[in-house]
Amino acid sequence: MSQVLVTGANGFVGRALCGALLQGGHQVTGLIRQPGGCPTGTQEWMHKGQNFAGLTEAWPDALQADCVVHLAARVHVMQDPAANPLAEFRATNVEGALRVAEAARAKGVRRMVFVSSIKAMAEADAGRPLREDAQPQPQDPYGQSKHEAEQVLVQYGNAFGLEIVIVRPPLVYGPDVRANFLRLMTALSKGLPLPLGAISAKRSLVYVDNLADALVHCVTAPQAAGQSFHVADGEDLTVAELARSLARHLQAPARLVPVPASWLRLAGNLTGRSAQVDRLIGSLQVDTSRIRTVLGWQPPYTTDQGLAATARWYRATH
Length: 318
Description:
The chain is an alpha/beta fold. Helix content is 42%, strand content 14%. The chain has a domain at 3-174 and 206-235 and 285-301: Rossmann fold. The longest helix has 22 residues, at 85-106. The relative contact order is 0.14. It comes from Paraburkholderia phenazinium.
């Protein structure tokens, strides 16, 4: 049994992770900015310091954590209102992450699991699933900030003896999902025609409970120290296959129009949404063989089970 501190514990992934840790018999403290939202059994620690400023000084005397899982981040948004998005991402995702690492080391924590993003590596797979040793080519401020945070944390960990574990998930889905995945379910549930029928490129996904299970392995397994892992369900789908599966679980029709990818690219160019279209029609598969080999991890849920659970949540709440 470990004592684990989870930043962003009342967020989408944080709630799933805290639940998995508690179920495994671990003691869990959630570091949050606003009270509430953590699973029952989680000890809440509220700290409002901007980008974790003053975290070391505010650390509760009774908290003797073995591991910190750092989930809190400035997340990717399609249309960022910030005047300098990269500076804002760096302030939270790089400088904030380093402050968490510094506080953890000062308080005797032995390991920090940093939840990065596949966007720290690339937006596309260049013809083969992305491995952990691929050359990083982040394309946007969010991905760049996550890549820089990885580098800073590894350097800090090497210098001061803090075990750093990096986890890079692709798109995460599950109950309470937001953004594009939620919009897709809404469109499907309304029976709207979608121009997705001709998209053949596959993309990796990870069900939130599969990601939480992988993170528990990263917290507890000695051999995870110093490693980087890509985590996904292992059942990559085309966008059309994803839409059809979701529609089936939503008990809604899948009205997918076979619009050629070249037409979608043209529409993206004309509307200033080329990046969004590229993400929709491009291939982004990840290789998960390292975490399976090093940690013996297997996703406990299939993609179909994850999509079914997500659809049940949507039908119950919308």
